[in-house]
Amino acid sequence: MNSTKEKIGFKKELGLFDATMIVIGSMIGSGIFIVSADIARTVGSSGYLLLVWVITGIITLIGALSYGELASMMPWAGGQYVFLREAYNSFVGFLYGWTLFLVIQTGTIAAVAVAFAKYTAVLIPFFSGNNILISIFGLNISAGQILAIASIFILTYINANGVKEGKTVQNIFSVAKTISLIGLILLGLIIGANAKVIEQNFSDMWSASTVHLKNGVIDFVEPLSGFAIIVAIGTAMVGSLFSSVAWENITFIAAEVKDPKKAIPWSLFLGTLIVTILYVLANVSYLFVLPLKGNPTATDISSMGIQFAAEDRVGTAAAHFIFGDVAVIIMAVLIMISTFGCNNGLILVGARVYYAMAKDKLFFNFAGELNQKSVPAKGLWLQAIWASLLCLSGSYGQLLDYVVATVLIFYILTITGIFILRKRKPEAERPYKVFGYPILPAIFIILTAIESLILLIYKPNYTWPGLIIVAIGIPVYLIWSRKNIV
């Protein structure tokens, strides 16, 4: 493959700080404020709640360090798609790009946009998802969906006007939400800390249990031991993993990074390390303020606990003990900032994958064109249109559930590619070599494979449909590789 083709026309506008802000901004959305409730219901103890986040952080850090080697070796537009193409073949690369466009990137953009609209409705009730504005052929379109789509189009317009404009938005929102999250953590650890709650949560940290609900009330609490704890940790990690993905997105835009062979590995390491620390500390803060165990029928925040925080909004429940009733507004603003910045990062980088695919004649040819601002604007708008359709369909959440195992499988394939390329291309320039090779990449592959297997066996409704989506890409590839589709 001609490695120069991905660089032609792109402007190198991104420095180390900008790249790190893309990593942080793309990772931190609304998940850290919500998913701990489901994790707490699944594992039932503070020790295992924190362990789930620590394991997730370890997997993320090792993955980021490993991707750093591939990015320094191939700092071209397209990132992970290119890594898979070079390690295996265009077929494997296409299956990743196909799934990315169809579900992973666009589905995440849709979900984050709807979350932005949902929390905007806390401040401006008009944008509630229940406020139906249009009904067409049985399809109800709410004000919230309109706002979600508008946010996607606004961010797409900004990014279509140049990577410099996109990075400015990214830096502002990433810094704002990072500072806000740090502030929330410190306030929880210092001001909101409750000695009685701390004693309750940490006196018996390792008694694992799973809460089973029936008709909205606790049916029974199942004590866990042995292998059942491993299964519970694996199933609980669905939320923490999806709150921690998208760090690899910086590799998509490598052609626009200054000194990418150094900047991208460093941005991956720094970005994932910062987010991992913040996520663990956020959960410690929650455990200082709220009891982990609770009752779904309770009417006060303390009795509901982390497990049954209203609508799983753990961050809002914790903030309530610090700020009082105004916490709902404060958290709504924080999550609006977080989701808007997150979506900017996702929108900014996604079209670079479609660009690389188009250059390989495996995507619409127009997606491989750069506009006068040196960005793949047509690919950006195609991404916006598809993500908006997912917003209207309401299927984005279900689609994201479907691709949990699929994302992990592509992670495994990509990092296995390090071993393949070390053997196949030992002479290739590698400005950065993954720390701890081959042990750390092997640990990542083993842990991620175990997680994938647990999900395939114990959460089949989340996994097999995702594999079917990937499989549909096989005939599409055969058609696309034989015909030059406009």
Keywords:
single chain; 486 residues; mainly alpha; Amino acid/polyamine transporter I; 4 strands; disordered N terminus
Task: Detail the topology: elements first, then pairings.
Elements: H1 16-27, H2 36-43, H3 46-73, H4 80-87, H5 90-123, E1 132-136, E2 139-142, H6 143-160, H7 163-190, H8 195-202, E3 209-214, E4 217-223, H9 227-242, H10 260-289, H11 301-304, H12 314-323, H13 327-359, H14 377-393, H15 396-402, H16 404-424, H17 439-458, H18 460-482
Describe this structure in words.
- There is one protein chain.
- This protein is mainly α.
- It has a domain at 16-88 and 155-372 and 411-448: Up-down Bundle (Amino acid/polyamine transporter I).
- Helix content is 67%, strand content 5%.
- It contains 18 helices and four strands.
- The chain has helices spanning 16-27, 36-43, 46-73, 80-87, 90-123, 143-160, 163-190, 195-202, 227-242, 260-289, 301-304, 314-323, 327-359, 377-393, 396-402, 404-424, 439-458, 460-482; strands at residues 132-136, 139-142, 209-214, 217-223.
- Strands 1-2 form a two-stranded antiparallel sheet. The protein has a two-stranded antiparallel sheet with strand order 3-4.
- Strand 1 (132-136) and strand 2 (139-142) form a beta hairpin.
- Helix 3 crosses helix 17 (439-458), helix 13 packs across helix 14 and helix 16 runs antiparallel to helix 17.
- The longest helix is centred in the first third of the chain and has 34 residues, at 90-123.
- It is globular.
- Mean pLDDT is 92; it is low at 1-7.
